Amino acid sequence: MLAKLIVLAILAQAQAQADGAPRGQLVIVGGGAENPAIRQKLFEMAGGKKAKIVVVPYASNDPKAGELTAERWREYGAENVTILDNSDPEKAAKNLRTADIIWMRGGNQVLLMQGLSKGNLAAVIHQRFRDGGIVAGTSAGAAVMSSDMIVGNGGPRGSAEFYKPRISSGLGLWPEVIVDQHFVKRDRRRRLESAIESKPELVGVGIEESTAVIVNGRGFEVIGKGPVLVLDRRKHAAVDDKEKAKGPADDKASTASGAAAAENLAAYTLTNGMKFDLDKGLVSTPPMPMAADLSQTQDASPH
User: Fold this and answer.
1) DSSP class of residue 31?
2) Residues known to be catalytic
3) If we measure between CA atoms, which residue out of 191, 259, 211 comes closest to residue 31?
4) What's the total number of domains in the chain?
């Protein structure tokens, strides 16, 4: 099953690249308590509360997960909410193709990918994203946005392997980035650092709870009450590649190379209203007020 998921993810990503830049947007939430500002922003992006929302429930084994999530959307005023049912892949694909918002709830990202493998629904989500749909998710639904998806820690807490992430294949909607969530709450900076040490061609984006990044093309904006950490080792990787091309170096040259690489390791902390571009770096610095009163933040266990 895992091998099949990897093949499907690779094929979907290859097709997306072949078709050019997608016209859709991603809304990637770091999990945790609900933030009404994020829901409100999604409604604005999709054209209002009549927008068609398709809930993807497969991150949870709870048979009631889909309805609980749909009901939360209805409480916020959504008038057209459908729960994805992969027991009828043809109908499920039709619902995804006509969705304004595809919402992936939290839980277990491996289960989520398994649920989307039936009827090749992952490829349908890619197509909807290319055609202009909004794909959004929280917690596990955030993790799957990457091509290289963090699925857990490499060992038990306290072990040498704890901060080494286990990696699997995600949806690949944001292929140049690796996402981690519940970032500050669960102390995941070292895990994300380890992830980009092993894959320095990727940009690490750690998203705190009740916080989201809105991805549009090459850039994204932060909305929410917590920080988003961006870790970028791509210049470091370029230095390493140049040194490898030169062949063996003496200790002095090697030390100089290491110092240059360290200088090219960039870390950015973004807060509400700040923007980042994968090519230009930080493009907006002044944080802006929240769009909703944070006192309204609610517990949202049925993501």
Assistant:
1) -
2) 139, 182, 209
3) 211
4) 1
